């Protein structure tokens, strides 16, 4: 055989291992998933938004607004005057985005060079990036109506230029997770919550991937150096070895998290514009009890992650093979991170909600936003689930440490022992 | 009471039988050697006695304690040195010895153990260097010190001088002999026939998972009319 071909064959066999293939496949799947999410977002943006309208004015300018809205959206509630609560409820039931109320003196005000008032009740369903797309579309429709009125005023002539460009004003109220927040739009709320939407999942993902990687690599190194063999022959309980490894990695992981959080906080602050709305003004604050719940959720998720890594680490034959075993943990950390960034738990389809709930790392990622809106059942049930998950993983890890699987790669059944 | 008692020991890895019904015993205070070609089953036997591997069949006792049923008790009495083992690279030699000593004693007694370990390792000021900066010989001396500093009832040493130069190997052999004088029983495996002949009171020759010969070096030499154990080994394994 040709020498060059011989070397090429050897190189390909050496390089084409699961350790090199799996990360590429995973990244492909992640990008594919992101692509389909973005595609989904584009489809949502093209759809007509579902809205309700109460037009209390019969003037020409309210007609422009009315016509523009009807042409570009699907109207599920229509009234000339009436009950706002009924309109909001109808729009909510029909999965709509907003109830738009054109005030009774809308056209008269504009004729008098005063801004015509459009009252908007936004029905906000989630704080993820994709959740605010529909409200963005409605926002665009209202801007278009505003533009048409401007054109009409300019055609009419004899009008103040500044007023002609902005003849309407909005009075916005956003209803989100049972809270009614006046003077604020879903976009502003999404922007305010973006630090929670992005920072917490990213930090959590980094902690899990790094601390988990440490546990698995440590197992690989211990096997490679045979320090594990020494450790297992010392008079120490197997449960102490497992707990010690998990606790040690958790401490380092949390330390890393603090460092990352400080850096990331500064990074995000650099993007914030001045004059941001204060969340506390809308009752969106966390008290000591909430922070305690977040801390518990974070600690338990980290314990669950490290316990899972400990179990995976028992499969590591050496340091190199340990690197491959971090991939499943990374996937489990990346999936909830993207899902939570794009959508709220409550706005996901049921199947995805089950997947998100089943991944233990999702819960601290969702906890801060959930607690801000008083969704205690989700947080507490998440804590209970993650506790059970962590205990089961620790029990499996201790069980494996009590067998000789760590050295042989298979679990020998003591019941089969022959005498 | 024998320090180690192995009866009809069998160990399978899946369908492969690594150890096939061997029996032997080592008395307190002696150095018992297991020798044999690669894959003979020596390390498997040592790992079973060290409570790392479970037995498939038969019985193994260390100072009367069953290695399966009373693994915790056995671990208090033994010290195992795996072949080609390393230590925690980010610890200094002293920190590594302290880490191990903490599993056995606290306070002054722990300090005594560490002091003994430092003396056995004989690394001078390098004991406070990180393990990652040690040569192979220095690491091995540290590990031998770790294994022997606790004055175990039974020291199980798998190829204790493997990969070492003549000087380092000789020093480790002296350390092992000194430890036995203090009352420790040593069970060792080695490829180095001269080392085994020099150190061991009795030897078991393993081949294909079975003990094919057993006796003291002079007995074995006489039995095969051989000049040394290397010749005996070659004759038996052939």
Describe this structure in words.
- The complex is a heterodimer of chains A (419) and B (238).
- In chain A, 37% of the residues are buried.
- In chain A, α8 (186-225) runs antiparallel to α10 (238-269).
- The longest helix of chain A has 40 residues, at 186-225.
- Chain A is of the alpha/beta class.
- Chain A is elongated and about 90 Å long.
- Chain A contains 16 helices and 6 strands.
- In chain A, α3 (60-72) links the parallel β1 (50-55) and β2 (74-79).
- A 6-stranded mixed β-sheet of chain A has the order 2-1-3-4-5-6, sandwiched between helices.
- With 238 residues, chain B is α/β, with parallel strands linked by helices.
- Chain B has a domain at 1-77 and 154-162 and 185-238: 3-Layer(aba) Sandwich (Rossmann fold), CATH 3.40.50.
- In chain B, 38% of the residues lie in helices and 26% in strands.
- In chain B, the strands form 2 sheets. Chain B has a 6-stranded mixed β-sheet, with helices on both faces. Chain B has a 4-stranded antiparallel β-sheet with strand order 2-1-4-5, covered by helices on one side.
- Chain B starts with a strand and ends with a helix.
- In chain B, 45% of the residues are buried.
- Classes of the chains: A alpha/beta (419), B alpha/beta (238).
- Kindly state the percentage of residues in helix of chain B: 25-40%
Instruction: Spell out the CATH superfamily of the domain at 1-77 and 154-162 and 185-238 in chain B.
Output: P-loop containing nucleotide triphosphate hydrolases
**C-alpha Rg of chain B, in Å?**
18 Å
What name is given to the CATH topology of the domain at 1-77 and 154-162 and 185-238 in chain B? Rossmann fold
- Per DSSP E runs of 2 or more residues, the count of β-strands of chain A stands at 6
Shape by Cα distribution of chain A = elongated
| Oligomeric state as shown | heterodimer
**Runs of chain B with pLDDT <50, length 5+?**
none
Number of strands of chain B: 10
**SSE pattern of chain B:** EEEHEEHEHHHEHEHEEHH
């Amino acid at each position: 055989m040709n020498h060059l071909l011989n070397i090429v064959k050897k190189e390909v066999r050496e390089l084409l291992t699961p350790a090199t293939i799996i990360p590429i496949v995973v990244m492909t799947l992640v990008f594919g998933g992101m692509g389909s999410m973005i595609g989904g977002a584009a489809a949502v943006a093209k759809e007509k938004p579902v809205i309700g309208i109460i037009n209390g004015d019969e003037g020409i300018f309210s007609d422009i607004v009315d016509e523009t809205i009807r042409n570009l959206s699907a109207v599920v509630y229509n009234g000339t005057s009436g009950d706002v609560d009924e309109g909001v409820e109808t729009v909510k039931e029909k999965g709509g985005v907003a109830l738009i109320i054109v005030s009774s003196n809308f056209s008269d005000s504009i004729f008098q060079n005063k801004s015509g008032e459009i009252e908007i009740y936004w029905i906000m369903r989630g704080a993820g990036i994709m959740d605010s797309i529909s409200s963005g579309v409605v926002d665009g429709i209202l801007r278009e109506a505003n533009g048409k009125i401007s054109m009409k005023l300019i055609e009419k002539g004899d009008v103040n230029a500044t007023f002609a460009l902005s003849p309407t004003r909005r009075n916005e109220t956003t209803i989100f997770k049972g809270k009614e927040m006046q003077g604020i739009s879903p976009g502003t709320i999404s922007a305010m919550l973006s630090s929670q939407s992005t920072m917490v999942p990213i930090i959590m993902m980094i902690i899990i991937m790094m601390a988990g990687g440490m546990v698995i690599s440590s197992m690989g190194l211990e096997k490679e150096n045979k320090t594990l063999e020494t450790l297992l022959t010392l008079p120490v309980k197997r449960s102490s070895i497992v707990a010690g490894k998990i606790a040690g990695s958790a401490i380092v992981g949390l330390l890393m998290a603090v460092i990352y959080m400080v850096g990331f906080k500064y990074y995000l602050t650099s993007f914030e514009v001045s004059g941001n709305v204060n969340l506390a003004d809308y009752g969106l604050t966390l008290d000591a009890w909430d922070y305690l719940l977040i801390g518990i959720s974070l600690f338990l998720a980290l314990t669950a992650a490290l316990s899972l890594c400990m179990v995976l680490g028992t499969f590591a034959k050496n340091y190199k093979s340990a690197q491959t075993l971090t991939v499943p943990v990374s996937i489990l950390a990346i999936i909830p991170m993207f899902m939570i960034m794009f959508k709220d738990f409550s706005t996901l389809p049921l199947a995805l909600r089950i997947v998100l709930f089943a991944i233990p790392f999702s819960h601290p990622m969702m906890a801060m936003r959930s607690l801000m809106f008083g969704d205690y059942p989700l947080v507490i049930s998440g804590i209970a689930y993650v506790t059970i998950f962590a205990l089961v993983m620790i029990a499996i890890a201790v069980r494996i440490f009590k067998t000789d699987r760590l050295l042989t790669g298979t679990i020998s059944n003591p019941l089969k022992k022959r005498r | 009471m024998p320090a180690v008692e192995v009866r009809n020991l069998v160990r399978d890895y899946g369908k492969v039988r690594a150890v096939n019904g061997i029996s032997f015993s080592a008395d307190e205070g002696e150095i018992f050697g297991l020798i044999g070609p690669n894959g003979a089953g020596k390390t498997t036997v040592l790992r079973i006695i060290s409570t790392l591997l479970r037995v498939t069949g038969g019985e193994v006792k260390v100072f009367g304690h069953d290695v399966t049923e009373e693994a915790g008790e056995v671990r208090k009495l033994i010290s195992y040195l795996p072949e080609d083992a390393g230590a925690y690279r980010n610890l200094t030699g002293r920190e590594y010895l302290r880490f191990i000593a903490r599993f056995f004693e606290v306070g002054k007694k722990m300090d005594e153990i560490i002091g003994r370990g430092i003396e056995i390792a004989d690394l001078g000021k390098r004991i406070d260097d990180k393990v990652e900066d040690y040569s192979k010989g220095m690491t091995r001396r540290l590990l031998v010190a770790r294994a022997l500093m606790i004055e175990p009832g039974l020291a199980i040493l798998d190829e204790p001088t493997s990969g070492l130069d003549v000087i380092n190997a000789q020093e480790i052999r002296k350390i092992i002999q000194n430890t036995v004088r203090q009352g420790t029983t040593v069970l060792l495996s080695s490829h180095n026939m001269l080392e085994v002949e020099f150190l061991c009171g009795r030897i078991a020759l393993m081949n294909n998972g079975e003990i094919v010969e057993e006796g003291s070096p002079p007995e074995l030499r006489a039995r095969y009319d051989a000049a040394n154990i290397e010749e005996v080994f070659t004759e038996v394994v052939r």
